[in-house]
Structure formats: structure tokens, C-alpha cells
Specification:
With about 160 residues, the protein is an all-alpha fold. It starts with 6 loop residues before the first helix and ends with a helix. The protein is globular, with a radius of gyration of 16 Å. The protein has one domain. The chain is about 70% helix and about 0% strand.
Length: about 160
């Protein structure tokens, strides 16, 4: 990521997504509210691969996934593999995704987050004493609902950067 020509914006958005992914809900709230958090990293990676496919690649996604693994104490490589897979799929279809409306892109985000949560739950079931839970659908739904807001903010920031 070159810090010139918007590289700092990509880096800043990835750092903010990482902080939001790691941040815990307040202790006053019940523990089940943790399932109501969107998957910020998937949304940010999807946006930048779709918007600037020449600037955001598989290695970047893999490294970000390893950082997320370390921060969330997930089995090493799970998020890296998921983000690299999602980056490849988005790379392959980014021209089509650009033509989608925000509602259709939200559906794509729903499927991507559901895939990521399923892989993460499967890894936890193999490595720990975790049980299957249907609650993995909630982060996908919340991510789908947050997507138009996040895409709008990142789009405004990137457009103001291009005109500046």
C-alpha cells in the first residue's frame, strides 16, 4: 500500500475496522449482544477490492486475516484464508459488483459474512469445545444492514481524495 494517492485512507480504514472488530461490547450488556456486531473487516476488504482492485491484493488480505486471528484468538490462518478467498472472489467479479445496487451488494456482503462465520465456527468446533449455533446468521444480517452506510462513508472519503 503506497501512502500516496489514497494509500493512507486504505490503511486508516483497515485499522479502524480492526479496532471495531476487536472491541468488546460493554459489560453491562448481555453476552449475546456480541453476535450483533457486523464483520467490519470483511466489509472494508470487500469495498477496497471492489473500488481499487489494483491496490488491494491477496497478500494484503491474508496478512490482515492473520492479524485478526491474533487479535481475536482464532485458530491461526482461519481469517486469513477467508479474507483471501473473499478477495479472490471479489477480484473475479468486481466489475459486476460495481454495477449492483447497494441492496444487491448488501446481499453479497450477507453471503460473504455468513461464509466467514461458518468457517470460523467450524474451526472453533474442530479446535475447541464449541457447539454449532444458528446465531452465526446475526453478524451477516447486521453487516448487510450496515453496508450502505459504510460504503457511503468510504465512497465519500475516496471521492474527496481524488478531487483534492
Amino acid at each position: 500500500m503506497n501512502p500516496t494517492h489514497g494509500g493512507w485512507l486504505i490503511l486508516l480504514s483497515v485499522i479502524v475496522a480492526l479496532v471495531l472488530s476487536v472491541a468488546h461490547t460493554p459489560f453491562d450488556l448481555p453476552q449475546w449482544t456480541d453476535w450483533l456486531r457486523p464483520d467490519w473487516m470483511v466489509m472494508v476488504v470487500f469495498y477496497w477490492v471492489m473500488e481499487l482492485p489494483q491496490r488491494f491484493g491477496l497478500i494484503t488480505a491474508w496478512v490482515l486475516g492473520l492479524v485478526v486471528d491474533a487479535c481475536l484468538a482464532d485458530p491461526l490462518g482461519v481469517n486469513g484464508a477467508c479474507l483471501a478467498t473473499l478477495t479472490y472472489v471479489t477480484w473475479s467479479l468486481y466489475e459486476r459488483f460495481r454495477m449492483y445496487s447497494l441492496l444487491q451488494q448488501g446481499g453479497v456482503i450477507f453471503l460473504m459474512v455468513l461464509f466467514t462465520e461458518s468457517v470460523r465456527l467450524s474451526a472453533h468446533m474442530l479446535t475447541r469445545e464449541a457447539e454449532f449455533s444458528g446465531a452465526i446468521i446475526f453478524p451477516a444480517i447486521i453487516s448487510m444492514l450496515v453496508w450502505p452506510f459504510l460504503a457511503g462513508v468510504l465512497s465519500r472519503l475516496s471521492r474527496s481524495l481524488v478531487t483534492a
